[in-house]
Amino acid sequence: EHITRAVEAVDLLSFSIVSNFAEQTQWHKLPTTQVLAWLIPPRNEFPPQLRAFSLTDTAGYVQVDTPKAPRFSRLATAADFAALIGEKETYRTVWQPAPAPNTTAPNYVIGYRVNNKYGQTDGVLLASLQLSYFEKFCAEQRLDETFEVLVLNKQGNPIIGCSKKVTSPHALPADLQKQIKRTLSQLQDHPEKKEEWYHANGYLFALTKATTQDDLFVFAVSSENRLLHLWHLYNIIGGLVLILLFALLIGSGFVLQLQ
Predict the structure, then answer these.
(1) Strand ranges, E, within 14-161
(2) CA 112/CA 85 separation, integer angstroms
(3) Collapsed DSSP state (helix, strand, coil) of residue 4
(4) If you average pLDDT over residues 66-77, what whole number do you get?
(5) Could you give the C-alpha distances from 140 to 121, 163, 204, 207, in angstroms and in order?
(6) What interhelical angle do 131-140 and 2-21 show, nearest 10?
(7) In the chain, what percentage of residues exceed pLDDT 70?
(8) Which residues contact 157 (CB under 8 A, 6 or more apart)?
(9) Cβ atoms within 10 A of the Cβ of 206, count?
(10) pLDDT tens figures, 83-109
């Protein structure tokens, strides 16, 4: 739920920026300071899940970007970028652009098609996600070492994990990779479904849609024995609390009778 809300907040901010360009004929001819002012949130306060914004032309060249924006390479050759430029039904997508030479790999980005006032494609807005924010939040929610949460892209590859153990799809067991791909396909083929649950080899798995665009998914796995142990523990604690409350009520009644 938290991941969904965090991504939705980036969407809302990005769509408000895109709407500014929809009122222009050619934003390329505007002063850079004006374009940059649209890219920077009010009071220069970027939400913690957002690293930076970059604005490209239709050829894939970054024209304006905010501080801390990653450097990209070969944007125009990426299938996701081409879809934003050429396919009218595609207005938003999530992918990892190739980093520029001699730079560290960039965060995953959410790309938004930018149209001008005539409805013509005039560029792409790239919102770079701050992966460390998601990783920190996720790590704090771990129940134990058997509990793992991954944020997957639409191909089923992990882009964010609770622990540093999982940094690529190849870090997952082969049978688990196949199960994820099968379950992911089922969710994508049935838009009305929001999540799928299954268990195997002593583990309980869940795959949930993280966005309404079906381009990010949350995968969770934990040991069934551990979950049962926690369930029994919570039942015992709940029972002790009820006994304590019952004892307090009886004690209070006895005290009142003595008075």
Answers:
(1) 50-56, 62-65, 72-73, 92-95, 98-99, 109-115, 121-129, 148-153, 158-161
(2) 10
(3) helix
(4) 87
(5) 41, 10, 20, 20
(6) 160
(7) 75
(8) 168, 169
(9) 16
(10) 898 877 788 888 888 888 777 766 789
